[in-house]
Specification:
- The protein has 13 helices and 11 strands.
- It is of the alpha/beta class.
- The chain folds into 2 domains: about 5-165, no CATH class; about 180-375, Rossmann fold.
- Strands 1-2-10-9-8-4-5 form a 7-stranded mixed β-sheet.
- Helix 13 (about 350-355) links the parallel strand 9 and strand 10.
Length: about 375
């Protein structure tokens, strides 16, 4: 869409379009800075402070909420203040339009935008980047503070690059994963429950290779599962959280502690012998009340019917149990990660056959799959 066409749009419609472009650029380049710079090259009338907001894909109200969050919710900034700052920067040399952000506000805003579209990234953004074309319009004290901050950041740039080089493992720098767009998906659920979950996609920039997840992404996925559980339509009180293998056990531990009032934790260690899956003796089956509510946690679902075996085993050991299934990553059948139907998932038939009360899915992934942090199995 050309610049002239966009300028003829209403401000609201143009803002939504630029936010869409900004998010797309972030997911393409994996950097808020690069996405903002690309937006400013495409739209010459766009001030940097506004371009950074669009690079994170936020509305003014959402940017204000992110600002308050970055400030530890000790501020009550509103979208009108974000608008005033952007109007001031957009005014270019004129006076009286909008109001400039203080140096302290720029520090907080840079931190807020550095967290990316989903608030999980940790990109270092200089407060000076946000006002690069409007720098001389700032009060002298703030100009001096920005100069001093820029000097310190240039000194630390060398040590930062050394830290990145030292973090290289097997040729891959220790950087955060790119998290794709959110999308709604209808999944099997309880009677009169909410079938719509909000999942996110996990694009893999290295096709044909496992995607190594960072702890940030792993934690974000568990938080997404918690949100889905809370949105089930009724309160879910689990008696046991079972983890399938070590990665599932970590998920079960977090969910049991944060979501299910420290319920009992079970462990199912799967072993494969001659293509047959069974449970190792170190698996743990806690005592439970009659007809318990059980949440099963698995790191990923592909083709193997592990969850079917697990469901049969647990129903035999715990007669009358209600089984719920929470999985971090579900593989898709096609190249599109933002699937429109549950049936487009590789393991859809497996999960349906297991007859779970409800299914929760944090993210979708492409073949060959994802690898948990520290190679948990």
């Amino acid at each position: 869409m050309g610049t002239a066409t966009q300028q003829n749009q209403s401000p609201q419609k143009r803002g939504r379009e630029l936010a869409r472009q900004g998010r797309a650029l972030f997911f393409e380049y994996g950097s808020v800075k690069v996405a903002a710079r690309e937006l400013m090259e495409r739209h010459e009338d766009l001030p940097s402070i506004q371009a950074f907001r669009y690079a994170v894909g936020l509305s003014q109200d959402q940017a204000a909420a992110r600002y308050n969050e970055a400030a530890g919710n000790q501020t009550t900034l509103g979208g009108t203040t974000i608008n005033a700052w952007e109007t001031w920067a957009r005014a270019r040399g004129s006076a009286g339009a909008g109001s400039p952000p203080s140096y302290a506000s720029l520090l907080i805003l840079a931190t807020a935008y550095g967290r990316g579209p989903h608030g999980t990234a940790d990109e270092a953004i200089s407060p000076g980047d946000l006002v690069q074309e409007a720098y001389e319009k700032l009060p002298p004290e703030d100009q001096l503070a920005l100069k001093m901050a820029a000097g310190r950041s240039s000194i630390s740039a060398t040590s930062d690059s050394l830290r990145v080089r030292n973090a290289v493992v097997d040729g891959s720098p220790d950087v955060d994963n790119i998290i794709g767009s959110d999308f709604n998906l209808l999944v099997p659920t309880i009677a009169n429950g909410n079938p719509a979950i909000c999942a996110f996609s996990l694009p893999n920039p290295n096709a044909g290779h496992l995607l190594d997840l960072t702890w940030n992404t792993f934690g974000f996925g568990i938080q997404r599962l918690m949100t889905q559980i809370k949105s089930l339509g009724r309160r879910l009180d689990a008696d046991i959280c079972f983890g399938i293998n070590e990665a599932g056990l970590v998920m079960a531990t977090f969910l049991a502690s944060a979501q299910f009032n420290r319920c009992s934790i079970g462990y199912l260690r799967c072993k494969s012998v001659r293509n047959e899956i069974s449970f190792a003796p170190e698996s743990h089956f806690p005592a439970a009340p009659e007809a318990p509510v059980i949440v099963i946690c698995d790191f990923e679902v592909k083709h193997a019917d592990v969850v079917g075996l697990v469901a049969r085993e647990l129903r035999e050991r715990y007669p009358g149990a209600e089984l719920y299934f929470a999985v971090f990553g579900a593989m898709t059948k096609g190249n599109t990660l933002e699937v429109e139907t549950f049936e487009e998932l590789t393991g859809a038939r497996i999960m349906q056959a297991a007859n779970f009360e409800a299914v929760f899915i944090a993210a979708t992934m492409s073949p060959p799959g994802i690898e948990p942090p520290l190679e948990l199995r």
